[in-house]
Amino acid sequence: MVEAITATYVQEDADWAITVSGHGKELTARAPGIIAARDRADQLVEELGSNGKTTVVHLLNGSALDFTSAYMTARLTLPKLPPLEVPPPGSVPKQQTTEKAPDAVVPPAPAPASEKKPALPPSKQLPKAVEESKPAPEPAPAAEKAAEARA
Fold first, then answer.
1. What percent helix, strand, coil does the chain show, rounded to 5?
2. 140 lies in a domain?
3. Distance from C-alpha of 56 to C-alpha of 64, rounded to nearest angstrom
4. Which domain holds residue 35?
5. I need a labelling partner for 103 at 20 to 30 A (CA). Which of 7, 9, 70, 128 fits?
6. pLDDT band at 90 (very low <50, low <70, confident <90, very high)
7. Is residue 49 domain-resident?
8. What does DSSP say about strands 15-22 and 3-12: parallel, antiparallel, or unpaired?
9. What's the pTM?
């Protein structure tokens, strides 16, 4: 049989008081904000020793709808950020005026010895971009190989 556990939330200034009751027990706690209060309620439900077939009903002002509305509003509301300061056109931000620009671009580290290809004479080397995009050669049919060998 499924036994319901009730989590009741009451806002007290900036904090929330939580009361979780079920299995003949009642536990209370406080949390700063409704999201933290909901997390704390989950911890209290675990302390009650509930099994896997427990239903938790979260209530605010005696209403599950009020709790859900307040909780989802808190979860989906973006934090208030200070306004973005846009510098006037043509000005340089402060952090760029104090830092020195890099003198040169650092080349990538060479490949490990196990990945290096055998060196070719300069006349047979291809530019790296061409070498990487070049498809692997397909094996020639046996008849063509024999004709090449006779030539």
1. 35, 20, 45
2. no
3. 11
4. 3-76
5. 128
6. confident
7. yes
8. antiparallel
9. 0.51
